[in-house]
TrEMBL record:
Catalytic activity line of the entry: (sulfur carrier)-H + L-cysteine = (sulfur carrier)-SH + L-alanine
Single annotated GO MF: cysteine desulfurase activity
Protein name (database record): cysteine desulfurase
GO BP: any one term: cysteine metabolic process
Organism of derivation: Streptomyces eurocidicus
Family recorded in the similarity comment: Belongs to the class-V pyridoxal-phosphate-dependent aminotransferase family. Csd subfamily.
Transmembrane region(s): none
InterPro entries per UniProt: Aminotrans_V_dom (IPR000192), Cys_dSase_SufS (IPR010970), PyrdxlP-dep_Trfase (IPR015424), PyrdxlP-dep_Trfase_major (IPR015421), PyrdxlP-dep_Trfase_small (IPR015422)
NCBIfam families: sufS (TIGR01979)
UniProt-listed SUPFAM superfamilies: PLP-dependent transferases (SSF53383)
Amino acid sequence: MTASLDNAAFDPEVIKKDFPILGRRIRDDARLVYLDSAATSQKPLQVLDAERDFYLHHNAAAHRGAHQLAEEATEGYESARETVAGFVGARADEIVFTRSATESINLVAYAMSNAGRAGEEYADLRVGPGDEILVTEMEHHANLVPWQQLAARTGATLRWVPLTDDGRLDATTFDELIGERTRLVAVTHQSNVLGTVNPVRAIADRAHAVGAVVLVDGAQSVAHQPIDVAELGADFFAFSAHKMLGPNGIGVLWGRRELLERMPPFLTGGSMIEEVRMDRTTFLAPPQRFEAGVPMAPQAVGLAAAVRYLEALGMEHVEAHENALTRLALEALGDIDGVTVVGPRTTRDRGATLAFTVDGIHPHDVGQVLDDRGVAVRVGHHCARPICDRYGIPATARASFYLYNSQDDVKALAEGVRAAQRYFL
């Protein structure tokens, strides 16, 4: 490998000290090389300590009760909302806490489905026969299946942007696919398989020109590059805490305020109501309208700690570090005969996720050999089966890098792939 990491101030070996799990020895006393952050990231002590501190000192139901603990829980929860909003360039009242990016996307899909039955104030969000919903061939199932279901419920037509041979969206189809019947465009910012970073702003501008709404799946981008939702031009942006050093069980939906105000609720119950009588109910304004039930305050506090950790490192430094690792990994895998990277072969407009196949070896077997050597990758179709169908492959092995990975981790990956070839071929 001739490429080198050029950000001397960003030292992953120092960063790893905040992640005790990365010091584990596994299998036959092998060093843990964690290359599965696209599935879920590891959590630094700062996040674990913040969540634990909440339970130790402030545990109560946020937005319930007038006692001091309840007040402290509410303050922690709403402060976390402000922190998250600042991280993506948004207003706090545009941030909705959900359980995951998947729930965030479903929230929008069901709101659009329910808009047709919820009164005239929601009319501009209605989807029905003759309308079109546009997705892409590279979507995670979480940003595909909800729109399939919305189309089935409403009689709308689902269309998609195809993939090119090198793992990018076929931009020549945009003019054909985005038209006066398009009601919504749903697109991933960064593919969880191909690593491709899509031209969201250009897509959003085309969609807005015909009056369509744009939802961006940011689960794979928000942890790895600076994000400003206004600059992206999106109307909705969804992401999950657990992929950005935060806790499991909490996600985020950002939505433009004027759209959130015109959306009917997804879940109903406590916390999201304004007034309840036996024969009628009115709902609170967003974001509370979409946060039924007891708020996940401990997880929100943990997410805020993750945001502060990332901000302290600087997202521009995180992005540069991962870009350098990706360059090294593309070169290392490219030097191995029989290895094919599925997706862009350069670092231009791509993130630090590399899916690959090895001639003559099933990806599951590649993953097993890597695991025996302490290298944790994901194998399968990665909840994006249409990508495998597009390229005529049953599955891939996928290595995904993050801020705590190093050049030695790239070397371990390449050595593990060569070991699989020696064993099976």
